[in-house]
Design goal:
Mean pLDDT: 85
Largest sheet: 7 strands, mixed
Number of helices: 8
Low-confidence stretches: none
Radius of gyration: 24 Å
Shape: globular
Distance between the termini: 29 Å
Length: about 375
């Protein structure tokens, strides 16, 4: 889907104000605290470059070059005095630099966010051409809040909504690490990339995370089937999925739980072979599919293999597996299967379900023959 062009904030010298095309005049307020307060829904499509320039020029006009924008997840009817703030801020740093703040809360008041959170967040931010800059924590009404700030290498093409979503990913990652909650696929991937796979010990498999103790052996038909089946199941699910080869699980209270870090030997594993296989066996090919190798520091022969399956557009479903597997274990290339990830398990659509999905698609397309 092609996004519409971003809105561009403009500094109005005659009014000493910032205009946002298409937004209400109450979407951006300069408060009594001499900081900006803004409606996130109204400013989500504003380009970061234009907002940075506008805020800089506003700061020059009032002779205050360090301005912050607090956001609210409401429309222009928000009230800075009583409305809850979004865990996301922007702060002008001068020279065309805009810092993005991600907020999270932690359990203990003596928690020191540096350097752990910086190390954990850095690989995630690097994928978006950004890097952590500083962190701080405050005791606000008895609740400790941590602010991890980062900056983009370039703001070109970035919108405020993009920065907000990335701040959310950073916050979720850091919160999961500090609170030991359920990690989604983005958090699991970031922990592997940051060299902290041990943080995954005790994590349970769920609808967006699957752990494998070894890499799929593509020389074996049954292993090729397993890889394609697992990927198709995530593609048919309701969330982005991640398969990590190099984590052993055991059953704990009936749930598969990561119990040991067992890096796999990477010799002979080529991501392009895995992608090629999946493109042949999963129909249609899932969008944004990635297979990546993460080597252990200091040991290039061992590491992890990550298979990332983004959440797929509904119109591409169902994803069919171009082989079937009989009860005797034999792989049959003339059959099809529709695996679906449900919780930590893979279910299979029956013939009636497949017919319903195909019939709905034909009806939507207006096909009569």
């Amino acid at each position: 889907m092609v996004r519409k062009p971003p809105s561009k904030a403009r500094f109005l010298k005659s009014k000493t104000w910032i205009a946002i095309p298409g937004a209400s005049e109450y979407s951006l307020i300069f408060g009594a605290d001499e900081q900006f307060h803004a409606s996130l829904p109204d400013l989500a499509d504003v380009s970061m470059v234009s907002m940075t320039r506008a805020v800089e020029r506003f700061g020059e006009a009032i002779e205050d070059m360090y301005l912050r924008i607090y956001f609210y997840e409401q429309g222009p009817n928000f009230d800075p005095e009583i409305s809850p703030r979004a865990p996301f801020t922007l702060e002008i740093r001068g020279n065309g630099r805009m810092s993005v703040g991600a907020q999270l809360s932690v359990a203990g008041r003596d928690y020191d966010p540096y350097p752990l959170l910086h190390q954990i967040a850095a690989p995630l931010l690097k994928r978006y051409r950004a890097a952590p800059t500083r962190s701080a924590h405050y005791d606000e009404h008895g609740k400790v809040r941590v602010y991890l700030e980062f900056e983009y290498a370039s703001l070109r093409g970035i919108r405020i909504g993009d920065a907000f979503r990335l701040a959310g990913k950073v916050s979720a990652l850091c919160s999961a690490v500090t609170k030991r909650g359920q990690f989604d696929s983005a958090v699991v991937e970031a922990l592997i990339e940051s060299g902290r796979p041990e943080t995954l010990l005790g994590q349970r498999e769920h609808d967006s995370f699957d752990a494998k103790s070894g890499a799929y052996d593509l020389t074996l038909p049954a292993e090729r089937y397993e890889l394609a089946k697992d990927v198709a199941a995530f593609a048919n699910g309701d969330a982005a999925g991640l398969i990590v080869c190099g984590l052993r699980t055991r059953r704990v209270r009936g749930l598969d739980t990561v119990s040991e870090i067992v890096p796999v030997r990477l010799e002979g594993i080529r991501p392009r072979d895995w992608i090629g296989l999946l493109r042949r066996m999963v129909v249609p090919s899932p969008e944004g599919l990635r297979v990546e190798i993460k080597r252990l520091a200091g040991d290039s022969g061992q590491g992890f293999v990550l298979v990332s399956i983004p959440e797929q557009p509904p119109h591409l479903r169902p994803f069919l597996l171009a082989v079937g597997r009989r009860d005797d274990g034999k792989i049959v290339e003339t059959e099809i299967t529709v695996p679906i990830r449900i919780g930590a398990h893979t279910e299979y659509a029956d013939v009636a379900s497949i017919h319903t999905m195909l019939a709905a698609g034909r009806a939507a397309l207006g096909v009569r023959t």
